[in-house]
User: Fold HNH endonuclease from Streptomyces rapamycinicus.
Amino acid sequence: MAEPLRVPVSEHISIARLHGEACFRCGAVARTLYAAGHITLPGRARVWPVVVCEDHRDQGEPNVS
Assistant:
């Protein structure tokens, strides 16, 4: 399995984004989605595979602001 992405993730991130059902960056669901790596929530052991839409595909690792 790939190394989890080291990005800041809020406890308030959408469950659809964590389940790989929406773009991790913008939340789009009605677009083609591409694998973007894995993340973990702070203090948690669960690894979540995340996806991004075509607009965010070439922007590197997902990042939550």
About this structure: The longest helix spans residues 15-18. DSSP finds one helix and two strands in the chain. Confidence is low (pLDDT under 50) at residues 1-7. The two ends are 26 Å apart (CA to CA).
